[in-house]
TrEMBL record:
SUPFAM superfamilies: Nucleic acid-binding proteins. It comes from Hominenteromicrobium mulieris. InterPro entries: NA-bd_OB-fold, Ribos_protein_bS1-like, S1_domain. It comes from the Bacteria. Keywords: Ribonucleoprotein, Ribosomal protein. Belongs to the bacterial ribosomal protein bS1 family. This is S1 RNA-binding domain-containing protein. Residues 125-192, 208-239 form the S1 motif domain. One of its GO terms (molecular function) is structural constituent of ribosome. The keyword Kinase does not apply. GO terms for cellular component: ribonucleoprotein complex; ribosome. GO terms for biological process: translation. Pfam families: S1.
Length: 306
């Protein structure tokens, strides 16, 4: 079975079919299927109530996530799932005094299976689909499968530096990421290696063009303007320019041997754009080594996944 971030299964035909009738849910329990449905309530004991269409399900608090039972994960991991898809395995059916049937569910068991059958087999350099779950100044957190979350540090998001991950991602965005480090089953992600080398990005531009950019920093010696997430150029200083502004820039020169793009700042203005899904140069499932710098450049920038 393939494992995906939560939300991937909920609209799939097979998942919907498993929740059409109590008999279909019973079959899903017998087969040990991982299903997805929307959680609608977190009660005062932090049990999740889940809408299974033909009946309600309950995920007891200790079954809400890996680490809840052990006390290594806070209850916010459960509370934050309200009104969102949750994955689960059906473990039982119970009947109340009025004869109503409720399915007993375990998200923890689904996560344990994901750990054992998918995450445990990942190696550094593997490229996997992930979904952004929340953003912090130091990085983005991403669901790598069945609600199991890993960190994508801010310095690993792109070559061009940013002040906050919200400049690249929105919550719920599906992206690809690289397994950067693995400590037992704890994974740290990277992203910049999928966005192309200096040469691949520079080849999208020509000397003499005027193009769009984003001001990333204003230094004493010039203004850095991002042309793509993995390519920035340097323009001469100009008054009343600050980081975060949109810019139009004239490309004065492209110098692979120095890994530089020289720009002339035409205009800057304040405008906020919603982040677009990333454009990936690397489309494979595994990357051993990423060399960002051009071959003719004396400066060597490389990532080795080991």
């Amino acid at each position: 079975m393939k494992f995906y971030p939560e939300g991937h299964l909920i609209d799939k035909a097979e998942n919907k079919a498993s929740m059409q009738t109590p008999a279909a849910l019973s079959d899903a329990m017998r087969d040990g299927k991982i299903l997805e449905a929307r959680s609608i309530i977190c009660d005062n004991e932090h049990n999740l109530i889940v809408d299974l269409k033909c009946m309600r399900g309950i995920i007891p608090r200790e079954e809400g996530a890996l680490g809840i039972r052990e006390g290594t994960v806070r209850d916010i991991a459960i509370i934050s799932r309200v009104n969102k898809p949750v994955c689960f395995i059906i473990t039982d059916f119970i009947r109340d005094a009025f004869g109503r049937i409720t399915a007993v569910l375990s998200r923890r068991k689904a996560q344990e299976r994901c750990m054992a059958e998918y995450i445990a087999g990942l190696t550094c350099g593997d490229v996997i689909p992930v979904r952004i779950t929340h953003l912090e100044p130091f990085g983005a957190f991403a669901d790598i499968g069945c609600g199991i979350v890993s960190l994508l540090p801010i310095d690993a998001i792109s070559v061009s530096r940013i002040d906050h991950p919200k400049e690249r991602f929105t919550v719920g965005m599906d992206i690809r990421a690289v397994v950067r480090m693995k400590d037992e089953n704890r994974i740290t992600l990277s992203h910049r290696e999928l966005l192309g080398t200096w040469t691949e990005n520079a080849e999208r531009f020509r000397v003499g063009e005027t193009v769009a950019g984003i001001v990333r920093s204003v230094e004493s010696y010039g203004i850095f303007v991002e042309l793509t997430p993995n390519l920035a150029g340097l323009a001469e200083l100009k008054e009343n320019v600050h980081a975060g502004q949109q810019a139009s820039v004239f490309i004065k020169s492209i110098l692979p041997n120095r890994m530089k793009v020289k720009l002339v700042l035409v205009e800057c203005f304040d405008y906020t754009y919603k982040p677009e899904p990333p454009v990936y140069f690397f489309q494979g499932d595994h990357i051993d080594k990423f060399t960002y710098s051009p071959p003719e450049c004396a400066k060597h920038i490389e990532t080795v996944f080991a």
